[in-house]
Task: inverse folding
């Protein structure tokens, strides 16, 4: 196959930051994707409809001239979130979900939820108002191994949430383990999962073998090869519960190459090319369109896009930097190139 044309996809999990970084990274996303679910973990976090609408205007103003891209805004769920705010979010045409970060789980999650049980009234309101809950599914216990945090969260919290709120729509973001895949597969149609390009392409050796490589460090952390294979199988299965979410998370080089480096991989520069590489390796390019362009829109109850993008079989070298942001696979080659969007 020399070219691949698919319906224009959407990114159902992305960090575009704000300020200078926003202006650097947003054109990459807008070139490939028609829409994207925008993560709310800024400093300070986006916790109200009013804040989200201001952030949305900042995003729109940073778009290149002529770009056709729609940011789908989310709110950061905290213990201080009110049911009135959830109702207001449901009534807004621009708010599409709430994001649950366990406190301390990842970048800018200090304002997250420390006690899942304490927010049950808020989960009931989300269920009532039909707003999806997007979950960073990791526990943060100091005595829990970092490679087990997703599995333990599913066992300890997500199983109970799905039982106690059977009509709540939940996206388990950036799944990384075979156990999480199995849980989503076996659960009701109200739960889905996003999968990132780095978790499809790499296992934990990419971070640790031959020296520590901070630009492959993300949370949830890359896992064993057996888990990567489970993710590949899920993404290429045609199961509509699994869809594209890059979790592209830009940090400047000084924050990554640091004594306490930030978690996050920057993949927006070539997200579709990275996914195409993973799907081609699995001999499943015919499954990419559903994963990238259909299943997420269906889950969010939005119309599918109608225009197309085209990838061409063409080797190119990823730049070493984009304005002081080191991308995933910097300096390495990719075998697919976006040529029409």
Result:
């Amino acid at each position: 196959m020399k070219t691949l044309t698919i319906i224009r996809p959407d990114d159902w999990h992305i960090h575009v930051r704000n300020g200078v970084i926003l202006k650097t990274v947003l054109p990459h996303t807008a070139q490939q994707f028609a829409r994207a679910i925008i993560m709310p973990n800024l400093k300070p976090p986006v916790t109200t409809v009013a804040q989200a609408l201001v952030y949305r205007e900042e995003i729109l103003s940073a778009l290149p001239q002529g770009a056709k891209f729609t940011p789908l805004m989310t709110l950061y769920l905290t213990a201080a979130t009110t049911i009135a705010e959830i109702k207001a979010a449901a009534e807004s045409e621009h708010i599409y979900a709430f994001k649950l970060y366990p406190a301390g789980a990842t970048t800018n999650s200090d304002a997250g939820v420390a006690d899942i049980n304490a927010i049950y009234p808020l989960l009931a309101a989300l269920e009532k108002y039909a707003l999806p809950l997007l979950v960073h599914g990791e526990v943060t216990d100091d005595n829990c191994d970092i490679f087990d945090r997703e599995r333990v969260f599913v066992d300890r919290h997500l199983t109970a949430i799905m039982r106690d709120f059977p009509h709540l729509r939940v996206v388990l973001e950036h799944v990384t383990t075979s156990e999480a895949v199995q849980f989503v597969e076996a659960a009701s149609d109200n739960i889905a999962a996003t999968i990132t390009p780095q978790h499809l392409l790499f296992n934990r050796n990419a971070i640790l073998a031959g020296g520590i490589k901070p630009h492959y460090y993300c949370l949830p952390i890359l896992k064993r090869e057996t888990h990567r294979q489970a993710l590949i199988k899920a993404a290429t299965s045609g199961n509509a519960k699994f869809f594209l979410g890059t979790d592209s998370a830009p940090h400047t080089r000084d924050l990554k190459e640091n004594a306490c480096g930030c978690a996050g991989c920057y993949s927006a520069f070539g997200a579709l090319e990275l996914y195409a590489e993973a799907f081609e390796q699995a001999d499943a390019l015919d499954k990419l369109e559903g994963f990238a362009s259909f299943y997420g829109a269906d889950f969010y109850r939005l119309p599918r896009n109608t225009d197309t993008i085209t990838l061409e079989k063409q080797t190119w070298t990823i730049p070493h930097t984009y304005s002081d942001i080191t991308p995933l696979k910097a300096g390495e080659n990719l075998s697919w190139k976006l040529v029409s969007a």
The mean pLDDT is 97.
